[in-house]
Structure formats: structure tokens, C-alpha cells
Amino acid sequence: MPENEKEFIGEIVKAACKEITQERVIAQFNASETVFVPRSELPQNLTPGDTFEVYIDGMSKNGIWVGSIDKIAPAALWKHLAQCRQNQTDIDVTVIADDDNGLICDVESLLGFMPKREIEESPLAALGSYVGQKMKARILKFSQADGKLIVSHKAAVAEILRETRESLLAQLKPEQIYEGTVKQIVDFGAFVDIGAGVEGLVHRSNLSWGNDDPASVVSIGQQLKVIVLAINNGKISLGHKQLIEDTWAESSKKLTVGDIVEGKVTTFANFGAFVRINDQVEGLIHNSELSWQSSVRQAQQVLKLNQNVKVRIIGIDEERRRLRLSLRRVQENPWQQIFDACPPGTKLNTKISGIADFGIFVDLNYGLRGLIHKNDLPESDGKIDLNEKYHIGDPIECIVVSVDVEKERANLSVRQLAGDPFQAFVEQKPLGKSFEAVIRRIARFGAFAAIGDVEGLIHISELSENRVENVGSVVKVGQTVQVTVINIDENRRRIGLSMISEPFEPNLRDDSDSSDNNENTDSQSRPTLGDIFPENFKK
Q1: CA of 385: how far to CAs of 46, 74, 114, 360, 484, in Å?
Q2: What number is the average pLDDT over the span 139-152?
Q3: DSSP string of 448-469, one letter each residue
Q4: Whether the model pTM is above 0.85
Q5: Which run of H or E residues covers position 136?
């Protein structure tokens, strides 16, 4: 293409009419250049000598310029847009539609596109809310050849936002109150724009007095009044609950431990369910307070979301603003019912419901279970495999030894069906007498030894005259030893034994010596349940 051809293409020039034919107008521009223009694009009253503007569209094969009147307006607009882009001039656009990637805009009668990332620094989730809005924008890129036009609102307001942001941050102080806009919601709170793109975090603990799930308190785009709590290393902490009434303080005054109240299940957690009382305060039903039945271990087994339930208040922590609730305590305690109906000595015909290394569980009424420890089974030497001897669902006859309502436990025995071996032993007046005993179990504080059908404790201090560091270094399980009964606690059904004490007559012992001995052996026979039972029982 000749250099002079490149010079005029795409330009708008002033031309003078020289000749008019049926199909074209022949005009002259730049003194000596000739251009053909379609007759239909010019006024009918045009006459030779008249001047007009024409867009130079190209050159014909015979070297004559081809012009257009209709392309003047689009060409002028593209030229204007090019200047706006070069000079970074703001233009007015109108949003006419949206799609997944951004907004479609009317840019001075041309279609333009504004990508999501160019709408705002943190755009709202609903792009449809922008449709119909007029906004300032800057041209990022365009191509006249294929008609592409990309615009940005964020770029147009960036300078203004920067100045406003700097001014706001310079004046920002704790205790200032702002009307902000919720921009983002996360598990731990909500980010709020307090103006000019300055965002702060309202932690969930400062969003509502009930420490509710942020998504249930606010929504994206919502206007929210907040107060500045702190500014640390550019991070802004905001609060909302400080500006609203404390429903907890007011509502908790009306609640008392022991009250039965109605509420609605709002949230499930691994450890229980949260229930809102009177639409103002929220409390927790821990998994352990769901049901008296041990088979219920998760809230979803007995509750549904938004279910209305009656619960009993079992704890109010004013300082920590916590409410402890119980679902099971609305009902009568079945352990109390068992205690009343089955006092110690009651014989039961029931079924095996579980088997463990340390014993078997049997069914009681009300969906509860009791334990027959392996020492209370006929095979009490501990050598038998309980899983081979017993099976779940098998019938079994046993006798109630004890029911602890507070600890929710029931101990039963098969061996004691023939009588109480402990009481039978006590009736022999064994205190001070010597017996052969078989070591059954070893603990860190001593060894348990069986005298016939009863068991006593040889405290570590009663194993040897010398100091003993390791019980297992003195006695072994299954070993037969000679012991003296040095203490009997009938109330707690405990027997203290000694391998170093000589037999004695209880009524001949010195009072002070007897007192010291009783005190010593009493303390020696006070292991915890966790100490007495094997390791697998603790688990």
C-alpha cells in the first residue's frame, strides 16, 4: 500500500463536490485527492461546489479514494474513545445486563464489557443489582476492528477512593461509630466496609450477644452500624453488639437453675445441640444430657433442627454467658427408679447386653445397663475368656449389689446369689487372723489377694519390712502368700491385709496402736475406682 494511502485511511476530511452521478458523488479533498462517495449517503439537494465531511474508508483498484458519510459518527466515537483511553478520562456508562463474568454496558451507544474484578474493590455477590445503574468508568482496552471495548469502574474511582481512604484512616479512632456495609461473611465473623473501601472485622463474639453464627445475623450488602474497638498494625476491629441491647443480661435474670423451659434447636455440634430460649439466649445440651440411655451419643439421634423442645436449666454461668441445659432431666431419673425398685439383694432374671475384658453388662429396665464384674462371676480366677463363655442375648440370673444414682452405675453379681461372701467372711471374725491368699491383681499402690471368695488389699507398705518401689518385684499374679487381716471396713466393704504383720488378738492390742493401725490401713485401703479396676476398665 502506497504511503499516501496509509495517510488518509480512517481519517475524516473536508471535501468539495465536483460532480454528481446517479450512483456516486465525486469530490476533491486535500487540493488534489479525489474521493467517490455513495450518492445515497448525501442529501438530495447537494450541488457541485458544496462542501461536506467524509470518512476515508480505503482506495479502489483504480487509485480513487472510497469515502463514506455513514461511517463518520462511529469513527468519530472511536476516535473520542481512543483519546479518553490515552488521557485516562472518565466516561459515563449504563449497565444494561449481566452474565457470570461481569456486566454488559452501553458506552455512548457502543456495547462494552466490565469484568467482575473491575466493578469494585470488593464487588457485591449479586451482579444483577447493578443492572440499570449509571456509573463512571475508564477504558482499559478496545479494538475498533473487532468492536471490543473493556471498561473499569474501579479504575475510575480509584483516585477518589485513595484520597478518601487516606483521609478516613488518618482520622480513625476507637469509639467512632460508622454506618458500614457487610462485604464478606466467614465462620469467625463479618468484614464490613466503613467507607472508601476501608474494611474492618466484626468478630462473631462482637457481632451479637449470643455469639451466633454470623450468617444467621447479617447478610452480604446489609447496612450495619459498627463501632471501632481497636486498630492494630493496620487491622481494624469493629463491634456491633456494643451498639445493641444485651438480651442475655436481661433474659438471664428471669432464668433459674432447675427451671423447665421451652426452646428451639438451632445448631448441632459434635458435642451436643444448641437451643435458643425465648428467642434471646442460647444454651447447650451436652451429649451426656440428651438421654438416660447410653446408646444415645449424638444429638441428631433424638433431635431435629428447629424442633421445639422442653429442657431443664442445670447451670447458668453469668461471667462466661453460658447456659447449660438438659433434655433427659425433664423426665424422671430412671436410675432413681431402679434404686427404689431394686435395692441391694434383689434377684434379677435378665439378658446379657455387652461383654468387656473386665466383665459383662446386663439389661436393666428403662434402657439402662448394669455391670457384673468378672470377679463377681462364678469363674473368678480371671483365666476364662468371657467372650467364649458368654454371649450377647443370653439369659442370666444375678443379684443387685449396689445402685449409685449419682454416678449412674449398677453393680451386680452372680457369685453372691448363693449368699454374700463378704458378710460371711466378716461373721468369722477374721480380724488379726492369718490366712492363705492368692494374688489376683497388682496395682501401683499394692496387690489384691483373694481369701476364698473375698478379696482384700495388701498395701505396698505391707508387702515387706523393706521399702518397696515396685509391687511386681515382691509378688506375682497367681502366687499364694500368707497374710494377716489388719483392717475391715464393713461400710465400704473393704479388707486390709498384711504380709508383715503377725497375727494378733484385736481386743488385746493397745488402743493407740490399734488406732494408728486402723488409720494406716484405712488410708491404705482407699484406692480410687480407677486404681482398683484394671487399665482397660478405665478406658
Answers
A1: 118, 96, 76, 11, 32
A2: 86
A3: EEEETTEEEEEEGGGS-SS--S
A4: no
A5: strand 134-143
